[in-house]
């Protein structure tokens, strides 16, 4: 069916695009902070780190822009009925994102790129901070639009056209789901960005024997750990709030993510479950008692709605039909999101302790573990996005518009198949280009963006600062 392929196409392009979004959000602030440190202290190592990680940030930013453009075209090509229904509401935050946030972001990134040694230092510093603010504003407007689909507010249905009509842009932008989702997504983005800095630094410490480079990357390794650890606290707190909003506005998503089939008093958090989706029950379910009830209600004895009971209630409200999303996918996406994300944060906390007082890791595999934490963090972000979007099914706008009624009626199966194949091929090429560029500049190190002066002294070598590797 064209509907299924259109969903696959949007899912593939969105997941691919979301590889770059967290890094762009987090790295913009990291680079701005490094330049601020240079501006305040005048220490060359901060300038060198700014230019090095700034180059990696720009590569990622460019790829994010290219892949993000495709998303907008799909609304008109594959999802015209959806666009017709939500255009008056959905278009407002997206227009604000394009006209305000993206222009702010792109304009000042351009000034920052070409303004080295041309703009006054304070003005140049202001440019990267303006770009970072624009990046995070852009994220808020997009997430506000997405939150409206999960909890539609500030609108009414036009009795003549049957379309959603905006009544309060403030209600859309101040939606509980919007600001809570923003905190959770942005803090998760900083986990990814922090681990990106840590992973690059760990790789350079493994491969580079230049003492000045090693000293710089020892410090950036710890900086990445600090960013990740702080973001881990925020993502945990915001995730707790997200669970409570989910219980209130999207009970079917929460129940599916926990494979909770029936309403339950004091429901436990599922560690591992094997169930029968057709019969609506679990054969095996290893739980931690009361934890799900606490996450959903703040009370260990709270009541949590189950899939079967929610389905029965939805049939009474919306009519006959299946309102249950893909339970197996949501169940494991939830656990992969939490498991991979917490693993990355744990590696950072342990890494901070092990690298205190100028120490470095004694074993090569420990550096490899830090490098491996980066794809784990990116996967955690992707699984979180899959949970958010797939958990809304079968709705595109919860309670208002079904996904089956959102697809373009004039698009054929063949047309969607051709565009899906083309996008997949193009994105595969872009992935090779992105990886090649990042690998090239990471291997080149900071000397590619700022060579060391011949008369610059090397840092003193001590056993605890630059230890020999133990194999």
Give the secondary structure arrangement, pairings included.
Elements: H1 2-17, H2 21-41, H3 44-77, H4 80-114, H5 121-150, E1 155-157, E2 164-166, H6 169-173, H7 176-207, H8 211-249, H9 251-257, E3 264-265, E4 269-276, E5 281-288, H10 291-297, E6 303-304, H11 307-318, H12 327-354, H13 364-390, E7 395-397, E8 401-402, H14 413-444
Antiparallel strand pairs: 1-2, 3-6, 4-5, 7-8
Helix pairs in contact: 1-3, 1-14, 2-3, 2-5, 2-7, 3-14, 4-5, 5-7, 7-8, 7-12, 7-13, 8-9, 8-12, 12-13
Q: Could you report the average pLDDT, rounded to the nearest whole number?
A: 86
Helix content: 55-70%
Order of adjacent strands in the largest pleated sheet: 1-2
Helix-strand topology string: HHHHHEEHHHHEEEHEHHHEEH
- Rg calc: 24 Å
The main β sheet shows up as: 2 strands, antiparallel
What is the terminal separation in angstroms? 55 Å
Low-confidence stretches: 461-471
The number of E-state strands comes to: 8
Total helical elements = 14
- Strand fraction equals 5-15%
* CA-based shape: globular
Quickly describe the structure.
The protein has 471 residues and is mainly alpha-helical. The protein has helices spanning 2-17, 21-41, 44-77, 80-114, 121-150, 169-173, 176-207, 211-249, 251-257, 291-297, 307-318, 327-354, 364-390, 413-444; strands spanning 155-157, 164-166, 264-265, 269-276, 281-288, 303-304, 395-397, 401-402.
């Amino acid at each position: 069916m064209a509907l299924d392929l259109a969903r696959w196409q949007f899912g593939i392009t969105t997941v691919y695009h979301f590889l770059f979004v967290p890094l762009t959000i987090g790295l913009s602030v990291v680079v701005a902070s490094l330049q601020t440190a240079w501006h305040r202290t005048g220490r060359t190592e901060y300038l060198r780190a700014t230019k090095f990680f700034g180059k990696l940030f720009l590569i990622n930013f460019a790829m994010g822009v290219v892949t993000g453009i495709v998303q907008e075209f799909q609304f008109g090509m594959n999802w015209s009925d959806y666009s017709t229904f939500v255009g008056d509401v959905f278009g407002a935050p997206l227009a604000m994102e394009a006209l305000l946030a993206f222009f702010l972001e792109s304009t000042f990134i351009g000034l920052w790129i070409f303004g080295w040694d041309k703009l006054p230092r304070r003005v140049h510093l202001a440019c990267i901070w303006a770009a970072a603010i624009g990046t995070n504003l852009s994220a808020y407007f997009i997430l506000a639009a997405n939150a409206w689909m999960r909890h539609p507010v500030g609108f009414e249905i036009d009795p003549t056209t049957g379309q959603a009509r905006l009544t309060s842009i403030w209600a859309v932008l101040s939606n509980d789901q919007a600001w809570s989702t923003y905190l959770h997504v942005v803090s998760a983005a900083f986990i990814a960005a922090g681990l990106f800095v840590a992973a690059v630094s760990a790789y350079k410490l493994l491969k580079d024997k230049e003492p000045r480079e090693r000293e710089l990357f020892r410090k950036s390794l710890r900086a990445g750990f600090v960013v990740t650890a702080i973001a881990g606290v925020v993502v945990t707190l915001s995730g707790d709030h997200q669970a409570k909003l989910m219980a209130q506005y999207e009970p079917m998503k929460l129940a599916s993510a926990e494979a909770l089939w029936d309403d339950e008093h004091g429901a436990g958090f599922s560690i591992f479950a094997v169930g029968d989706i057709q019969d609506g029950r679990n054969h095996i379910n290893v739980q931690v008692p009361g934890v799900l009830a606490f996450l959903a209600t703040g009370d260990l004895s709270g009541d949590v709605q189950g899939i079967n009971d929610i389905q029965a209630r939805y049939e009474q409200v919306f009519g006959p039909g299946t309102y249950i999303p893909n339970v197996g996918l949501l169940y494991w996406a939830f656990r992969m999101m939490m498991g991979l994300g917490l693993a990355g944060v744990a590696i950072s906390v342990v890494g901070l302790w092990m690298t205190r007082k100028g120490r470095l890791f004694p074993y090569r595999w420990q550096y490899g573990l830090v490098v491996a934490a980066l794809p784990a963090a990116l996967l955690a972000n992707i699984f979180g996005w899959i949970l958010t979007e797939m958990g809304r099914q079968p709705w595109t706008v919860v309670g208002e518009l079904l996904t089956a009624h959102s697809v373009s009626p004039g698009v054929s199966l063949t047309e969607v198949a051709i565009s899906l194949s083309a996008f997949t091929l193009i994105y595969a090429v872009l992935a090779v280009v992105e990886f090649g560029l990042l690998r090239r500049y990471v291997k080149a190190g900071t000397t590619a963006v700022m060579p060391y002066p011949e008369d610059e002294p090397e840092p003193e070598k001590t056993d605890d600062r630059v230890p020999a590797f133990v194999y």
